[in-house]
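Table S2 (text version). Query chain:
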Amino acid sequence: MRQGVWVQNLSGDMAYRSFCPSPLPPDLHLDAELTQWIGEARGNLSELEAVTRLIPSTDLFITMYVRKEALISSQIEGTQCTLDDVLDPSVAEHANEDVADVVNYVHALQYAIQRLTELPLCNRLLRDVHAELMRGVRGQEKNPGEFRRSQNWIGAANCGLKDARYIPPNVEDMEQNMRDLERYMNEDESYDPLIRASLIHYQFETIHPFLDGNGRIGRMLVILYLMQQNLLSKPVLYVSYYLKKNQLEYYDRMAEIRKNGNYEQWVKFFLRSIAEAARDSVNMAYQLSSLRNQHLSMISEDKRSSRDLALLLEYIEQHPIMDIQHVSSALSMTFNKVSRLIKKMIEMDILSETSNRQRNRVFCYHKYLDVLRKDT
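Corresponding structure-token output:
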């Protein structure tokens, strides 16, 4: 079959069938609709690249984009936390497993980008990144940093192999599949890189080489591949944005390949997801940049405190939920001075208090958060 074969494993009561996908690439029919989506996705990515080069504080924007992608990608896997949970200094990550999952994703992606300067996109890199992703969090007992040595399956919570919705390749097939995928990522140049990214993501999710964390690594792989192909210079695309909004369709379209070999419908869906995510990333960059300029202008009118207020603005852009103690320590200012600056920002309607208590008060950069919270 075009998509692969179902392989019989074991016998008797233990018998089951696993799916072994065909090596990439398939022979695709590139119709007008698919070609149109390539053009739109590439155009939006080019605009995103241009915007991220022009805006000030690029590193700040990257930090927020990565946090948002980490959160949405983790939410697809069932993580129950919000952007506020991730940004709130009073929520200790070691005491909140959901927050720890998201924080680990951020660290893993940053680690992966650094490693990509030393290694090609290969199985060794994927295993190393997986080890970072799973370090000290749920799933750490499931061989972090190693391809699985046993059969896994996908289905309802606590279901057995017999009731699985999908059974990935057995271990022997999986190891060959990953060798083939590694070769394809680095040697094959047939089709546009965006089409190749769609095929790579599908293939990785279908192979499911780890016991846990496959979805997050698979979506991270898209960003890493686009960076390797020079379509992105920074990780400013939160690809999980569209996939979360259309989560059932996301899974169904990958299943449709395994069922009927229809790669084209998946490629179109993936290209649409890249186009929409890039457009949303551009809009967010413009909104945050505009907000920054507006607030810098307001701050500059306070001649006595403008320098200190600018330092505080820079801090709250990185930590949009904060308390006085953390700000005081980070900026080497006295508690009372920070308190006065925060009061000024509240009067300017830049900050607002989210706690309702006398001590350990918490404040937020509410308009900034409103932009970031969209679709999380």
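Notes on Table S2: Residues 263-300 form the longest helix (38 residues). The CA atoms of residues 345 and 370 lie 17 Å apart.
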